[in-house]
Each structure stands twice: as C-alpha cells, then as structure tokens.
Amino acid sequence: MKKIFAFIITIGTFQFSLAQKKADTVVIKVGDASKVIFAIHDKKDLETLKHYNFQSLMDDMIQKLDKRDSTQLAKPPTAYLKDSVKEVAPTDMITDNSSSEQEETKTYTYKRKWNRRKTYSTFSMDLGTNNYLENGKFPDQSNSLYSVRPWGSWYVALNSIQRTRLGNKFFLEWGGGFSWYNFKFQNDRVQMTKDDNGVNFNLDPRDFSYDKSKLTVAYVQASLVPVIDFGGSGRKPGFFNGRSSSGFRFGVGPYVGYRIDSYTKQKYENNSDTKKEHRHDSYYINNLRYGARMQIGFKGTDFFFNYDMNELFAENKGPKLNAFSFGVSF
C-alpha cells in the first residue's frame, strides 16, 4: 500500500491546478496488484503530458520504492520536462504551500515555451485544369485555333512540401516537385508546328477522323508560400497524410519552374485503325516560368490558383499567352 500511495502523491505533483470540479480518471494496471492513476481536471492537460519524460520519472520512482522511501520526490516537476520544453524565468513561477500534521506539499504553476520553428515534411498533389489568357481575354473569344477546352486540359503537380512555423499561426510552406500543363485544343484537327519564324497553328489537311489534339509541357518547379493557419497545426493538413485542421488557412507566394519536356499529341482514326502521334520539340516555349500562387484551405483540403507572370512562348515566336491553373491540392 505504501508503494501505491507514494506513486499517487508523485503523479499529483504534475497537476497544474487543484480544480474543485470532478476529475476524469485514467487507470493503468501494472502487474497483478499495482496500478497508476491519472486524475485529469482539464482536457487541455492531456496535451501537456506529451512534454514530460516519463522514463526518467519511472527510473527515480523505482529507486525510491526499492529503498522503501515513501516521501515526495526531491526534484521539482520541471526536472522531468523534455528538451523541447523550456521553463520561463523564475519570476513566472507561483508556489502554493500547504501543510498538515504529517506532510507538506507544494504545487507549482508555471508557463512553458515550445520550439515553434520546427519543420515538417509532407507529400502534396495538385489536380485541376489549366488555360491561358491573351491580353487579358480567353483566345476562344476571337475564335483562335489555339483555344483550349477547359474539360480535358488537366493540370497535375507532385510536390514535396516542407512546413516551417515562423509564428503562432504563421507558417512558411516551401518545397519542389514536378508539374504538367495539358492544353487540349478546342478543334481536334489543330496541328501545332514550328518554323524559323515561330510556332504555327493550322488545321491538319489529312483526311482522318480526329479525336484529340493537345500540347503538353512538363516542368521541375519550386515554390515559397507564406501561410496564415488559424488552426495552428505544425504539420500541413492533407489527404495523403490523414491530417486535418480545425481552422481556415490562406497563403500567397511565388513559384518558379524550368521546362524539362514539351510535346504535341494527335489522336485520330485511319481506316478503323487508331493512331497516336507524339512530336517532342521546344516549340519556342520559354524554358523558365514564374508566377504567383494562392492557397485557401479548410480542414484536410486546399484550393489553389497559379498564374504565370511571364508568357508561354518566347517573344515574337508565338501568341502572347499567360498560362494559369486552378484546382484542389490533396
């Protein structure tokens, strides 16, 4: 009985307040005749327990029990905090002394600071649609041959994102990955070619039954997006990591990409035989793309909008098009 009584007294020194309301209890059985009891007066204290080194506490307790010493541990509760938790200056500590005929107990109330600049890594996938603007308007308004279909012009990006806490609710999401533009032309007969003067868009003169014509551009990219997350989670919420956030979040930042491939694809039927033609070429597409990214999220889902500030094609080698994409980030 002395062992159980001493252990309950020791655990009691880790309570932050002696609330008068009824406490929730957690009982852990140890062996056949012993048990450890946690009395929780405030559910917020459950989060606090994560920051204690219980292995060190148990080592000290075992030594005292072996010596049949039922007195209180000499170390204050702060001695069992993990390295990531630091106690504020002694002026922030309040000591409440109470005494009885048999023993004297002390309850410590203190504040702590956590290391909030920790960085976490996660995998992210952007899935949406892409298009481009010509002088602020969609090309289909002028019936241009390079007009694209919103449905079928898919934007895909695979990224490794690091999230670093800069403040209480302020984070920096940075990382890199790969992205693909897919511009599916409105007219399936459109054939994209190039010559010394630039890129050309014409109707394919061959007498085939055309099913698809598109331009695909692949990039390796990097982004840097400051984010305000009112949920305050240190880890980036996402579909793949199973994490969610209870608050709204918003961020805007730059990105840059470098073209690693580009090609056109035509799909058609000739005498009931389906054919696909791929032509890999630069097509005077700018090797570098850069722009701004906006993110808006809630719980486990983020919506994104990317806008390229530079033009898709090199100067005087093609139409003046600024690409953009939007969709869902998982």
Characterise this structure.
The protein is mostly beta strands and 330 residues long. The protein has two domains: 113 residues, no CATH class; 211 residues. The chain has three helices and 17 strands. Strand 13 and strand 14 form a beta hairpin. It is elongated, with a radius of gyration of 32 Å. About 9% of the residues have low confidence.
Secondary-structure topology with pairs:
Blueprint: H1 2-12, E1 24-30, E2 34-40, H2 44-48, H3 54-66, E3 85-87, E4 94-99, E5 104-109, E6 112-114, E7 119-134, E8 154-165, E9 170-184, E10 190-195, E11 198-203, E12 209-229, E13 248-270, E14 273-280, E15 288-298, E16 301-308, E17 321-329
